[in-house]
Amino acid sequence: MSALRRKFGDEYQAVGLACSGARRERQRFVDKNGRCNVQHGNLGGESSRYLSDLFTTLVDLKWRWNLLIFLLTYTVAWLVMASMWWGIAYLRGDLHRAHDDAYSPCVANVYNFPSAFLFFIETEATIGYGHRYITERCPEGIVLFLFQSLLGSIVDAFLIGCMFIKMSQPKKRAETLMFSRAAVVSQRDGKLCLMFRVGNLRNSHMVSAQIRCKLIKSRQTPEGEFLPLDQCELDVGFGTGADQLFLVSPLTICHEINSKSPFFCLSQRSLRSEQFEIVVILEGIVETTGMTCQARTSYTEDEVLWGHRFLPVMSLEDGFFRVDYSQFHATFEVPTPPYSVKEQEENLSLSSPLNSPADNNKTRREQVCSLDCIDIAGEKNKLPFKLQKISSRKEDFPRGALRMSSSNTEKTCSTGDLLKIQEISPISDGEDSDDRIQLKALKINAGALTQSTGDLELQKNPPSMRALEKLNFPAKLRKMNSDRLS
To answer: How many C-beta atoms lie closer than 10 Å to residue 79's C-beta?
Structure first.
């Protein structure tokens, strides 16, 4: 225990189920020992169905009733058959002439009912002392003897088979399958999980062991229908194969609480007011007998410990692993968020930055265009000061040039195919020659540009030379634009 505290810290404290607080006693659907608290009443005429399957009915009875039926059946059968032998002797008059040596009776040495009963027991048990026997002058005795043999075989097969099946039932095998007294809720691998522990006390294995969990909880449908004790499946690894157990040592069964779990909205506070029951069913084949065994238990809301974890029970010894079952039910506290998984996801979504609705409603074309326009603005900032000054005079353009330039830029931004965009503003005839030289240096090779929708449109409807002359471009700039449009 001290090593465990050094490993996990002083805030961890080993606790048992007795430390979990006072329990609220309430009616269980399934007891801790696996017995179902369900009684069937008001069957009416359906009770006759039990007699149609008499063998199963006898096997399902308790041992005291089985033993009583066993004794009564044999006793009644023996008395009835002994009475029949005594009746034959009485009707033939053998009882009155039993000591006459010259008389040949049906059954020798049968004088009264006790002697007839002993004869039946000797015949039924095949003892045959040799003092009492059937003679050949009694055909009715021979028929009764055949009937006795057949009836005895049927009664033996029925009752002995019933007792054998009841004794070989694997119900007692479930007594050596252990479940933890409480279930715990804590985090495992960063996820909130509901966990409990199972173990096998015998060295013989459970072949093809499989575990299932059912949540028993009353609920009301949206239509107003009330469903008492509604059953809901709890996923304990059906999709991943974790429900198939290799039960040679105690295992901790884990149910991950997510959006598909019935405990998605369960928190530490709501656990105190909830009312539910978790039924655990463990099935497997007994290795020694080959019969299917099922062990059951249940956990109510009072037996679910929030923020706890099971103590380890496995240790490595010299050449083998040792299981300490004294710590099988023990738990210790661990830091666990008291919120439900739903609340944790909502808090996480609120803390993360979200895009505005306007950004979400943007089309892909607008987003690409905005990115391209940012690149254009960046290119503008890289121009020399004099060219920036020239570009700032764009408001002096004639309206026709602005219209053509904006249309060309919009088509380029919408496709996003062009790698660079060059905007050239008009230069008056009074500008210096240095400005013109710098403009010539910014000429872009049209062959390096990718063909886009805007370029194809310009190729289909190129502006005429007269339109370029109306813009009052200098001669060199008119030549540059004519080369580009061609």
So the answer is: 13
| Alpha carbon distance 270, 82 (integer Å) | 72
**DSSP bridge pairs for 252:** 197
Q: What is the dihedral of CA 466, 467, 472, 473, to 10 degrees?
A: -100
* Number of helices followed by number of strands (H, E) in the chain: 16, 15
Distance between CA atoms of 48 and 99, rounded to whole angstroms?
A: 52
Question: Tokens 């463990």 correspond to what residue?
Answer: 282
The single-letter code of the amino acid at 288 is T
Could you report the per-residue pLDDT of 293-336, keeping only the tens digit for each? 999 999 999 999 999 999 999 999 888 999 999 999 999 999 99
- Are 214 and 232 a contacting pair, CB within 8 Å? yes
Question: Comparing C-alpha atoms, which of 154, 134, 129 is closest to residue 145?
Answer: 134
CB 236 within 8 A of CB 243: yes
- Compute and round to an integer the Cα radius of gyration of the chain: 48
DSSP 3-state of 417: coil
The residues that bridge with 198 in the sheet, in sequence order, are 179, 251
Angle of the 113-124 helix axis to the 63-92 helix axis, nearest 10 = 120
Residue with tokens 């069913």: 281
Task: Give pTM, 2 decimals.
Answer: 0.60
The two structure tokens encoding residue 342: 């739903």
What is the rounded distance in angstroms from the CA atom of residue 94 to the CA atom of residue 111?
Answer: 7
Cβ–Cβ < 8 Å for 63, 166: yes
Instruction: Report the interhelical angle of 364-381 vs 399-415 (nearest 10°).
Output: 120
Q: Which of 178, 190, 197, 175 is nearest to 254 (CA)?
A: 197
Euclidean distance between CA atoms 303 and 182, whole angstroms: 5
Cβ pair 98, 109 in contact under 8 A: yes
SS3 194: strand
